[in-house]
Amino acid sequence: MFRLLAIEFHKLKYNRASKILSIIYFALLTSIALIASIKFDIGPIKFHLAEQGIFNFPYIWHFNTYVASIFKFFFLLVIVSMMANEYSHKTLKQNLIDGLSKKEFILSKFYTVIAFAFLSTVFVFITSLVLGIIYSDFNELSIIFSDLDYLLAFFIKLTGFFSFGLFLGILIKRSAFAVAGMIIWYFSEWIIYGILKWKSLANSEIAQNVKNLLPLESMQNLIVEPGTRLKSVKSIANQIGEEITKDYSVSYFNIIIVLIWTVIFIYSSYFMLKKRDL
Known about the structure:
- The protein has one domain (about 1-30, about 50-275).
- The two termini are about 25 Å apart.
- The longest helix has about 35 residues, at about 100-135.
- It has 13 helices and two strands.
- The chain has about 280 residues and is mainly α.
């Protein structure tokens, strides 16, 4: 595993575009801390976002993993460009000539996906821990280290998403078209949902259940939006007669779905590479 990872990181080391995109990606993850500096002072109205409880333990694990997952599209560019370069620079063919099997080649890419998903998770963990220690009203260890399953969901979400990007990179061979393929697939899931909802007429639950099984939707469902979980938001909702009853917990059923899709993407990538004439 470490030999295959070393090969991939050696390639990334000399790929300027990948290095720049990686730096931007981790810089964006760090920028979560800048949210704490957002203040509005308009006459008697003073608003400090950090004082709204977004950095309280254990809520911070939910909030930061949700925000950080938005930035995953930047690293998707690294994944698809990594595969595009293999074809354009003919390093894939050279690796196979040098003795690397097609299975080892796919594994090297998958190990890279796991490595970056893991690094991202550790990065978010450290950032969240520091922000929580500074701003949280609750500092008991039992509270600090509760709800850490959001970090697991974040890791699984990135692994599945980057594996999808790897699959599209091998399928299409061009980074721009691979990203376009991801966008087209996203809208395809909504089209499938719309058709099923139309066919089932009043029973939209069937359409939603099918949509929840699709790759991008299942990844999105791993971490539910945290905004309506804030007490201030719930208080406003109660004042206008609305009650928020959303389930914010991490669903292990969704984790299993994403893991299944990850296996499908990696095996399909290997199958394509195995059958393709290089």
